[in-house]
Design a protein that fits this description.
Layout lengths: L2 E5 L2 E3 L5 E8 L8 E6 L6 E6 L6 E3 L7 E6 L4 E6 L8 E7 L2 E2 L3 E5 L2
Parallel strand pairs: 2-11
Antiparallel strand pairs: 1-3, 3-8, 4-5, 4-9, 5-6, 7-8, 9-10, 9-11
Length: about 110
C-alpha cells in the first residue's frame, strides 16, 4: 500500500525554523519527483518546492526561494523541507506528493 506521511509541523515565531519530513512506504521515493505543496485557509493549494528523481535538481516558488531547502534521504526513504526565516504568510497545511499520491498534511503556524 502506497502511503506518504508528513511530519514536523508546529507553531513557530516569525523568523524561526522548522524541518518537515515526508516519509514513504510501499514505494521508493528516489524513483519519483517529489513535491511539497501548501494550502492556507481559504486559498488554493500551491506548489512550494520539488526535487527531481533523475538528477536531484530542485525548484522553489519565488515566495520561499532562499529560505526553504528541499532534500532527499534515500536511506530513510524521506524527502525533507528545511524552512528558515519563517513568515506569518507561510502559515498553511503542508503536503507532499509523489506520483499522484498525497499525504495527510502537517500544519505549520507562524505567529508571535
Amino acid at each position: 500500500q502506497v502511503q506518504l506521511v508528513e511530519s514536523g509541523g508546529g507553531l513557530v515565531q516569525p523568523g524561526g525554523s522548522l524541518r518537515l519530513s515526508c516519509a514513504a512506504s510501499g514505494f521508493t521515493l528516489d524513483y519519483y519527483a517529489i513535491g511539497w505543496f501548501r494550502q492556507a485557509p481559504g486559498q488554493e493549494r500551491e506548489g512550494v518546492s520539488c526535487i527531481d528523481s533523475s538528477d536531484g535538481s530542485t525548484y522553489y516558488a519565488d515566495s520561499v526561494k532562499g529560505r526553504f531547502t528541499i532534500s532527499r534521504s534515500d536511506a530513510d526513504n524521506t524527502v525533507n523541507l528545511q524552512m528558515n526565516s519563517l513568515k506569518p504568510e507561510d502559515t498553511a497545511i503542508y503536503y507532499c506528493n509523489a506520483d499522484g499520491n498525497w499525504g495527510q498534511g502537517t500544519q505549520v503556524t507562524v505567529s508571535s
